[in-house]
Amino acid sequence: MGDRTTFDELATALRDYLSSQPDVLAAYLFGSRVAGKARSDSDVDTAVLLSEEDGVARFERRLRLMNEVSDVCGREADVIVLNDAPPLLQHQVLKHGRLVFERDRAARVEFEVRAGKIYADLKPMRRFFQEALFREIQEVGLGGRR
Fold first, then answer.
1. Which domains are assigned to the chain?
2. Contacts of 82 (CB under 8 A, 6+ apart)
3. Alpha-carbon torsion (38, 39, 43, 44), positive or negative
């Protein structure tokens, strides 16, 4: 397919393609394309929520989706599977990304609520480690040397 560059072109191409993929419950565009900071060589950052499968099957599916989304968009694509993404990445996608496809609203909302709760539960731990890191940098500098 041809090179698709605008957000609307990418969203339409993804929506059309993903509607034929029954295991994709929802999809988001995120990253530089959504932030309006994409360069001519920027990839297409896509996050998908998949129906429940085992982790190995989801990993293999991610690799196939990366190739297929690249073909559909006409440029390199990075696809993350939200089911397996770390909580911080899930949060960033949900906060800054844009929903471009939804097959199952209930599953998407359930995932977003669960991801939000996990992110909130981990906030004190993230703060603790950030503060410890900042203290260490202040005491010994970057790289462990003064």
1. 7-103 (3.30.460.10)
2. 28, 47, 48, 49, 50, 90, 93, 111, 115
3. positive
Question: If you ran DSSP here, which 8-state letter would residue 36 be given?
Answer: T
* Stated pTM of the model: 0.80
The separation between CA 131 and the C-alpha centre of its own chain, rounded to angstroms, equals 26
Tens digit of pLDDT per residue, the chain (146 long)?
455 668 888 999 999 999 999 999 999 999 988 888 878 888 899 999 999 777 788 889 999 999 999 999 999 999 999 999 999 999 999 999 999 999 999 999 999 999 999 988 877 776 766 777 777 787 887 776 55
**For residue 17, which of 75, 84, 81, 70 has the smallest C-alpha distance?**
70
Phi, psi dihedral angles at 77 (to 5 degrees) = -130, 145
* Distance separating alpha carbons of residues 52 and 79, to the nearest angstrom: 17
The answer to whether 43 and 77 have CB atoms below 8 angstroms apart is: yes
